């Protein structure tokens, strides 16, 4: 029952089960394999429906994971691969067999999750936010927020609720706003100043007023297997920022499909751009969506 041979046999069995899952996924036109088996883990998801946008595919697969967890008979988790949401299947339990794996794959394939927005219910008096003026206020108004393309569709109420979670931060020249691989989840909007976005020794972007960063880490907030910061951002001059907690951005994305769709698009582009060093020098004021935050 114990000893190296028993452990080897258990691991080999788990690897065989995941390879079997790969074959089932590849044989089902409703599913797509995102990453092949590796150490008992693979990722996959439901394919896009005709005419379905990528952001909606992500949200639908997120809903599938949540619905299966609520049902209690299958437990899969979520992660992000190259900016796209994927379902993570990990087979390690020694009691799991081929029929269990087939059942899990079939449950994902047959899931009928819907992509919906989730209006935020009014807070009860006891749940009203605590005053946090001492953390550092700001003078940004809903109209200012809507001047940034990703937030154009927000109503005054949505914008005010989101801005109510923010605090202003100031960073001196040479100060770091984010560090690559750090697990912080704050989302930032640049109000004044300039940031150099770097991966290792390469500058991949320069962000100025109206640009934002940190959406990749914020989108993954609360996820089982999530990204840390994908790049380091350094102030090249005195910089003023608006900082939002990840939970506030996630709440806004759940309420506004337009914000959700655009942030997921930008995250996917930035992650794709961050897979290797740039082929040329960074261009000042390059569009925010063209490089990692």
How do the SSEs run, as a string of H and E?
HEEHEEHHHEEEEEEHEEHH
Number of strands: 12
Give me the secondary-structure category. alpha+beta
Approximately how much beta-strand content do the residues carry?
A: 15-25%
Which oligomeric state applies?
single chain
Distance between the termini: 49 Å
Radius of gyration: 22 Å
Overall form: globular
**Helical fraction:** 25-40%
Q: Helical stretch count?
A: 8
State the strand order across the main sheet.
1-2-4-3
Q: Please give the largest β-sheet.
A: 4 strands, antiparallel
Q: How confident is the prediction overall: mean pLDDT?
A: 82
Low-confidence stretches: 126-135, 275-293
Plain-language structure description:
The protein is globular. A hairpin with a 2-residue loop joins strand 1 (about 30-40) and strand 2. With about 290 residues, it is of the alpha+beta class. The chain is built from eight helices and twelve strands. It has helices spanning about 5-25, 55-70, 100-110, 140-145, 155-165, 215-220, 245-255, 255-275; strands at about 30-40, 40-45, 75-80, 85-90, 165-170, 175-180, 185-190, 195-200, 200-205, 210-215, 230-235, 240-245. The chain has a four-stranded antiparallel beta sheet with strand order 1-2-4-3.
Tag the structure with descriptive keywords.
alpha+beta, 8 helices, four-stranded antiparallel sheet
Brief rundown of the structure:
By secondary structure, this protein is α+β, with helices and mostly antiparallel strands.
């Amino acid at each position: 029952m114990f000893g190296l041979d028993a452990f080897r046999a258990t691991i080999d069995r788990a690897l065989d089960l995941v390879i079997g899952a790969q074959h089932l996924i590849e044989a089902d036109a409703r599913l797509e394999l995102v990453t092949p088996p590796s150490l008992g883990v693979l990722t996959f998801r439901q394919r896009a429906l005709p005419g379905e946008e990528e952001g909606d595919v992500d949200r639908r697969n997120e809903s599938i994971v949540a619905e299966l967890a609520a049902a209690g008979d299958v437990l899969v988790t979520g992660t992000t691969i190259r900016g796209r949401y994927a379902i993570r299947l990990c087979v390690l339990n020694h009691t799991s067999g081929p029929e269990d794996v087939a059942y899990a794959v079939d449950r994902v394939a047959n899931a009928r999750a819907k992509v919906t927005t989730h209006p935020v219910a009014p807070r009860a008096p006891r749940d009203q936010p605590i005053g946090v003026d001492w953390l550092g206020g700001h003078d940004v108004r809903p109209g200012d927020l809507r001047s940034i393309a990703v937030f154009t569709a927000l109503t005054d109420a949505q914008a005010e609720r989101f801005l109510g979670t923010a605090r202003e931060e100031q960073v001196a020249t040479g100060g770091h706003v984010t560090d690559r691989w750090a697990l912080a989840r704050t989302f930032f909007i640049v109000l004044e100043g300039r940031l150099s976005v770097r991966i290792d020794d390469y500058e991949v972007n320069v962000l100025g007023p109206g640009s934002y960063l940190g959406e990749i880490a914020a989108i993954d907030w609360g996820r089982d297997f999530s990204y840390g910061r994908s790049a380091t951002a350094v102030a090249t001059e005195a910089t003023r920022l608006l900082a939002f907690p990840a939970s506030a951005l996630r709440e806004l994305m759940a309420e506004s499909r337009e914000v959700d769709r655009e942030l997921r698009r930008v995250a996917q582009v930035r992650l794709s751009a961050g897979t290797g060093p740039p082929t040329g020098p960074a261009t000042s004021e390059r569009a925010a969506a063209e490089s990692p935050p």
